[in-house]
Amino acid sequence: MTINHHPDPATLMAFSAGALEEPYATVIATHLAMSEAGRRALRQLETIGGALLETEGAAPMASGALDRLMDRLDDDAETAVIAPAANDNDIPLPLRRYLPGGMEAVRWKWTGPGVATADLAWGRDGKSRLMLLRVAGGRQVPEHGHGGQELTLILSGAYRDRFGLFARGDIADHDEDVEHQPIAEPGPDCICLVAVDARLTFRGRLMRALQPLFGI
């Protein structure tokens, strides 16, 4: 499996620092479980971060800081695991707690012709969300932009947009300045793991009118 698209370094740094909401951290951890190059990049960032910390002086800690840190580590423990998947058919370890019954047990919600979604989790802020997106082979998602940051990781199948071909293990890291129209490659459904913190912004008038029904 060749992975050609990786997270933005700033996103990877935020993951390394524990600064990402649960949906985003889960997408990054799942990508890292699928990508040796991604794990290598993370180790390099952690090495640089460690070296920078060694040059900083000691700072006083607020009361209860250690307890809050330990609570946060307990909350994020399962998400942080990035052990590589055994093979291409496995659900990567960071994603398994959201899919205890496997892909076969997912309850899909119709969100348009050839398109379905399934919510998996919400972030602490109540805005960011983690979901699965399934696009039938040869179908397209209407052209859209993003109200915030969107991470999309391909779990199976593939799609193309103006940024190229995205296949299993590839990740698209987009912000509010990006507009695109993913088109699933012919053949098997394209299934993606997606984290978003705002609704999509569709260009077409009909899609904007129907968006409350679709919930995306």
Care to describe what's here?
It contains six helices and twelve strands. It is an alpha+beta fold. It folds into two domains: 9-96, Orthogonal Bundle (Arc Repressor Mutant, subunit A), CATH 1.10.10; 103-214, Jelly Rolls. A six-stranded antiparallel sheet has the order 1-2-3-11-5-8, covered by helices on one side. Helix 2 packs across helix 3. It is globular and about 55 Å long.
Sequence-ordered SSE layout with sheet pairings:
Blueprint: H1 9-16, H2 22-34, H3 36-54, H4 65-80, H5 93-96, E1 109-112, E2 115-122, E3 129-135, E4 144-146, E5 150-156, E6 158-161, E7 164-167, E8 171-174, E9 179-180, E10 183-184, E11 190-196, E12 200-202, H6 205-214
Antiparallel strand pairs: 1-2, 2-3, 3-11, 4-9, 4-12, 5-8, 5-11, 6-7, 6-10
Helix pairs in contact: 2-3
Largest sheet: 6 strands, antiparallel
Number of domains: 2
Output the structural class: alpha+beta
**CATH C-level of the largest domain:** Mainly Beta
How many whole angstroms does the radius of gyration measure?
A: 18 Å
Total count of strands: 12
Main sheet: which strands, in order across?
1-2-3-11-5-8
The CATH superfamily of the largest domain turns out to be: Jelly Rolls
Q: Identify the CATH architecture of the largest domain.
A: Sandwich
Share of helical residues: 25-40%
How many helices? The count is 6
Uncertain residue segments = 76-80, 206-214
Compressed to H and E, one letter per element, the order equals HHHHHEEEEEEEEEEEEH
Shape annotation: globular
Would you tell me the overall average pLDDT? 80
Percentage of residues in DSSP E strands:
25-35%
